[in-house]
Amino acid sequence: MTHQRPDHTDRPPADASMSLLNEIMRNPLDLGYSAAARRRTRQDLAGASKTSSHMSRVVVLVVSLALGVTTTMAIKELRARDEVISSARTLLVDEITERQETRASLEELAAQRQQSVDQLRSQILEEQEPELISQVTTDQLRSGVLPVQGPGVKITVRDGSGADLDANRRVHDADIRVVVNGLWSLGAEAITINGQRLTTTSAIRSAGAAILVDLTGVSAPYRIEAIGDPDVFDQQFPTSAAAEQLEALNDSFGITWEIERQDAISAPAGSNRSLIHASPVTDESS
């Protein structure tokens, strides 16, 4: 009898029988569970992003509030300082104004008393030595302690543009002195600077940014009026050394000037300064 081997052709392969198990091993969760897990992950990420955005907004709000408070406090402090500075400036201006008014009153009183002294002196001279009256009057006119009037010129000198930022563009006391000396050299008989009469003992100097004539402050524009021959001033001053310096100042710093004829100039009496150290020369001292 012939032994026949069993026919295994009808039996499924081992892999086919393990397909379900393999599928379970490869995909332990079905599609529904996987989709749900992915949605939950996206929601968690979105929630975290919203939380982070909310925290960022809170931080920005806190920082903005802190900056606002700091800025407000700084502004209040600056305003307080400005108020203090403004108050101090106001007090200083008021004090300067008050002292200027006091000085003006004292000058007026001194002028009145000087006029009384001059009248008394004239009366005495008329009685005792009438020939000296003319000499005294001439000396007073030359020294600048008597008011005078007459024709002449007015020279106006102005600061250059930007003088507040550049001191070189401001008119200095030396510039005024140059103009005054130029007018004296051309025969001026009386000179005023912004209404302040120059005498034989007058001084033109600076105090910081201000220009003082004797002890009185003057400011730009500077009006220098001179009594004398208008024709001489018109013809000779524009070619003088003083005019050359003014032109140089104009070219370098924009300082401007102009000269005008005046038919009538009034020059008030200057202050009669007492001499402390000087005394007349006598025959014995010579």
From TrEMBL:
What are the alphabetically sorted keywords of the record? Membrane, Transmembrane, Transmembrane helix
Q: Which Pfam families match?
A: DUF881 (PF05949)
Q: Which domain of life is it from?
A: Bacteria
What the entry lists under InterPro entries is as follows: DUF881
Cellular component per GO?
plasma membrane
Q: Where, by residue number, does the polypeptide cross the bilayer?
A: 58-75
Family statement: Belongs to the UPF0749 family.
Name of the protein in its database record: DUF881 domain-containing protein
Organism (species): Jonesia denitrificans (strain ATCC 14870 / DSM 20603 / BCRC 15368 / CIP 55.134 / JCM 11481 / NBRC 15587 / NCTC 10816 / Prevot 55134) (Listeria denitrificans)
